Amino acid sequence: MGGGGSGRRVRAQALRDLADKAKDALREAAQPDKRNVFICFAAEDLDEVNLLRAQSKNELSQLEFNDWSLSEPFDSENAEYIKRGIRERIKQASVTLCYITESSADSKWVDWEIRESDKLGKGVIGVYRGSRPPRSLPPAVQEFGVPLVPWKQKELMEAIEKAASRE
Asked: What's the sign of the alpha-carbon dihedral 159, 157, 49, 39?
């Protein structure tokens, strides 16, 4: 009876090939006149980030981008697995947009995502609500001199375009 595991390897490769085809189809379907943006944020800020995402889908909004960030956290506690998944999303984006709040300043994941975006050659910008950015910023924002813009559609789109030119 034997057989080893070659059938499993073939199925695993077929699944990887299918996943690659799906990613290619998603890239092609993404509206070409919109930038692909990865949004990094602290989990506590999900409701506000969802508002930002909704604005980008509103036809009447000046804010237009394809969202390549995570809609749900990875169902894992394995940090390397999570990093691989996030890294793939960042690679598919033109720009990383960091939602800057007091919570993001303390988030190790936000800091890692900014550093990884920089390592992958992606433009990074920070966006904040209100009249001024929070006093506390993620360390990578300070270290890399990430430009910060208010959550105003025109300014944010200009910053996204400028950051995308780094690509």
From this structure: negative
Contacts of 166 (CB under 8 A, 6+ apart): 121, 122, 123
DSSP string, 53-105: HHHHH-TT-S--EEE-S-SS--S---HHHHHHHHHHHHHH-SEEEEE--HHHH
For the entire predicted model, the pTM comes to: 0.73
Distance CA 68, CA 38 (A): 5
CB 34 within 8 A of CB 61: no
Helix axis angle for 108-119 and 79-92, nearest 10°, is 50
Residues of the chain with pLDDT under 70: 1-10, 12, 20-33, 59-64, 66-76, 166-167
Answer whether 160's CB lies under 8 Å from 35's CB. Answer: yes
